[in-house]
Amino acid sequence: MLLANWRLVRELLTAVDAALEVVDIRDPLMTRSIKFERLVERHGIPLILVLNKADLVPLTVSKAWKEYFSRQGVNAVFISAQKRMGTLVLRKVLKRALNNKKPITAGIFGIPKVGKSTLINTLKGRHSATTSPYPGTPGYTRRAQTFKIGEGVYLIDTPGLLPPDTNDVESEIRGKPIDSLDNPVATAVKLIRKIVSHYPTAFEEAYGIRSCEPDEILRLLALKRGWVYRKDGEPVLQESAKAVIRDYLSGKIPFYITPPRRVGSPPYRAW
Fold first, then answer.
1. Of 65, 77, 96, 181, which has the fewest beta carbons less than 10 angstroms from its beta carbon?
2. DSSP, res 46
3. What are residue 153's phi and psi, to 5 degrees?
4. Nearest 5°: CA angle at 51, between 33 and 152?
């Protein structure tokens, strides 16, 4: 996992006409980077918030988040890069944000595990071709590639990921590889509490476990999967903790947060 430093991010922002920030639509507020958005604003280029993984939430929730950001003056579009849904709309929004100027060069940014790479591959398509470095791009593009993704539309495949800048559990599970977590059980407990507070039946739907208690969920999942110590048959909670984190990130565990009723207020619960 290659996290970009902020100097390189600033350098790349001088090379693009617009910035696409990819976030996880299940919890956009905790997967966006306010620090990055402020940098984009300082550079005077349009920001488009790409609400990815829309296939994992109801359509009404996707529309509600788009409307929520629109009320804040943030240009947002919801898509599913995995399902190739909404990418044509994204292209149109990008062109409209730049008044249909040509050529356009866009950079894709985002914290880890929001689907940035999937979106890049989807936009590039099977027949995309690497172009020569775009005129005026700085040295940073030596570690990036520019692709033509449409008539007069270019995409810089950025080599790094933005470091998370929230204190939510999202920053823990996205900031480093799961196997590198200092205490995966503690992290999973926090994640489970977050999930069940918004989606109480999540673990019954995902694993057939009728419980909202983190410790019990981890214990029962380990027993169901046969993750036990040979010596005493006790469940290996580290394995079930890692499984919960992986399954959450991949969308196997149902979860989403609905937008706050008004800007600045806490989100109301989905259930």
1. 96
2. -
3. -120, 125
4. 95
Cβ-contact 87, 20 below 8 angstroms: no
**Which residue, 31, 40, 92, 29, is CA-closest to 64?**
29
Residue 172: both structure tokens together: 């823990």
Which residues are 156's β-sheet partners?
107, 146
- Is the separation of the CB atoms in 224 and 167 below 8 Å? no
Q: What is the pLDDT of residues 81-113, one digit of tens each?
A: 999 999 999 999 999 999 988 899 999 999 989
pLDDT band at 121 (very low <50, low <70, confident <90, very high): confident
> Can you state the percent helix, strand and coil of the chain, rounding each to 5?
45, 15, 40
Long-range contacts of 63-66 (CB under 8 A, 24+ apart): 64/258, 64/259, 65/25, 65/28, 65/259
How many angstroms separate the CA atoms of 138 and 12, rounded? 7
Cα gap 247→228, rounded to integer Å = 20
- pLDDT tens across 131-146, in order? 333 333 333 334 567 8
Closest by Cα among 24, 155, 158, 157 to 78: 24
Domains in the chain, CATH or no CATH each:
6-157 (3.40.50.300), 177-250 (1.10.1580.10)
Q: Could you read off the pLDDT of 246-262 as tens digits, one per residue?
A: 999 999 999 999 999 76
- Specify the 3-state DSSP secondary structure of 52: strand
Mean pLDDT of 77-82: 96
Q: Residue 152 has what pLDDT? A: 87
